[in-house]
Amino acid sequence: MSVALVTDSTAYLPASVVDAHGIQVVPLHVIIGGTEFSEGVDVTTGEVAEALRKFKPVSTSRPSPQAFLDAYEKAAAEGADSIVSVHISADMSSTVESAHLAAQQSPVPVKVVDSRSLGMAMGYAVVSAAQAAAGGAALEEVAEVARRRAEDSTVVFYVDTLEHLRRGGRIGSASAFLGSALAIKPILGLDDGHIRPLEKVRTSSRAIARLEELAVDAAGRATGGADIAVHHLDSASRAEDLVARLRERVPDAGEVTLVELGAVVGAHVGPGTLAVAVSPRVMPSESPAS
Is domain 154-286 classified as CATH 3.30.1180.10? Predict the structure, then answer.
């Protein structure tokens, strides 16, 4: 049995990792000023940040079912007997719906996993699933590895303004207005696939310091160790500083890596965003590939 892994571009997996594990990535789309681009293919995060600063219309859209079917057919042609397809939370995108529609026409069985997450919290789950598949795990086992690791992960983030989340319908208008009116810098988190306000602070420096504390606390709860990814949009210097501090404070982390947010998530959170994904490692008893 050979289980292939498919994910979408909001996992933000580095190309070297995708190639090493034979993962297929289906891009979501970002529309800037009426022109559609494929994430990771023909649009950069810098272009999205610039468009947002200039108040150009920016929106996003899911991949088509055909894009997923193409990926599934390719995996089957390359010898896969089944496929695990892991995607961004269904409460933030209808990408999972497209994957389910394509799975009905796939030449081999497909297990679609709603990660209830995004970014490297999803990316680490995909990698663990690929490792489990390489170790001989069957379809359901591979899907469970992905689901478990994504579920156990913590994602916290800071945005300079709630306005972009409000425009995209990812946070309520009242919360966005309150944040702007009081000059509050919010700390947000993912809770079962939803964006939830966690804390409110008065300055960006305090917000980033609090982000660091939350990440350290989450890593400390991971008994088997954790991998940590720091995401950013157009805030490289602050992100690099945060990576350095987390490496110092969490010396037993599997890795602490810097991963720029892509165009799709960037379109919703806006320039200046910092996010941290803390992903507890899969224990040997949970995966034959660990």
Answer: yes
